[in-house]
Amino acid sequence: MTLEVDTDLHRLVWSPDDFDEDGNLLTSAFRRQDLYGGDDYVSVSRVDELASNAEIALAESQAEKADGINFVREEAFSALLHCLAVCGAQDDDGNTPFQVTSEPIPDVNEAHCGIRNVTGKKSNSYVNQLRLLLRDLVHKSQRLDHFLNSLEK
Asked: For the chain, how are helix, strand and coil distributed in percent, rounded to 5?
């Protein structure tokens, strides 16, 4: 199901891997292989349906997979993108490359969604353009615990 709703999307990102030395989000927050299209997508969650326990479990699981060399995951962060902005974003040719789809994971994360590349374009240069576009669409990033605490208020 395609989503075009007025809500934020949460992406779990990591420090120091996904931030530069000045604290700016890097394109590494959006994996290249997730943007080749087809069945692949960037995993996000709808903020308006988010379950804190699901995000904490995901962060713990991802942190356990970090090897400290290729993946250094010291602190979990939330990167927020507005769903309508993602759906309306345009690439350098004026095309709208993204579709947000509902991808619930039963009994784990009902708020799970995917940001999909629907253009059919798969070149590395094009996928890098999409990564830059998504990075620039992030309107807020904050520590995961602060983000989850803000939802409870």
From this structure: 35, 30, 35
Q: What residues have CB less than 8 Å from 5, skipping those under 6 apart?
A: 46, 48, 83, 84
pLDDT digits (tens, 9 = 90+) for 90-120: 999 999 999 999 999 998 899 999 999 999 9
Entry pTM: 0.90
Residue from 116, 26, 126 nearest 79 by CA: 26
Q: What is the CA 24 to chain-centroid distance, rounded?
A: 15
DSSP sequence for 62-112? HHHH--SSS--EEEEEEEEEEHHHHHH---TTS---EEEEE--BTTTBTTE
Starting at the edge strand found earlier in the chain, the sheet holding 2-3 runs 2-3, 98-102, 112-117, 42-46, 8-16, 73-82, 138-143
76 vs 97: CA distance, rounded Å: 28
